[in-house]
Design brief:
alpha/beta, Signal recognition particle alu RNA binding heterodimer, srp9/1, 2 domains
């Protein structure tokens, strides 16, 4: 078997919350959107990564995923997010910290998803 990409799906009660996080904060672009259906969704892309964001109240209540985004410059990512979206910083990991396993990390969260940024 050969896989070329992992594309996670995240469910929001209101898809605009997901677009605020991924498009406004993390600067993903909308590659495809279908907002006029019973289950609105967008395909978001950045730097070869893809994520699907859906509007589905029931599934949003059942799921709270955590994603990890690896980077080669965590200080740059932290500086940008802490300057533009400080309210998203996770209270338990709101600064770049060297973790016991050796990675530098910090985290953000919104109403639906947690994202841990990591640099090895």
């Amino acid at each position: 078997m050969n896989f070329t990409k992992l594309v996670p799906s995240v469910f929001y009660s209101d898809i605009s919350d997901g677009l605020k996080l991924f498009v406004d904060c993390l600067q993903f672009t909308i590659a495809h959107k279908d907002l006029n259906t019973s289950q609105s969704y967008c395909v978001l892309q950045k730097d070869g990564l893809s994520i699907m964001v859906f509007q589905d109240d029931q599934l949003a209540k059942e799921h709270y995923p955590e994603l990890r985004l690896e980077t080669n410059n965590i200080e740059e990512v932290y500086a940008k997010i802490s300057a533009t979206h400080p309210h998203l910083l996770h209270p338990n990991l709101n600064k770049v910290t060297i973790r016991p396993w050796g990675a530098k990390e910090f985290a953000i969260k919104d109403l639906q998803v947690g994202i841990r940024f990591q640099q090895w």
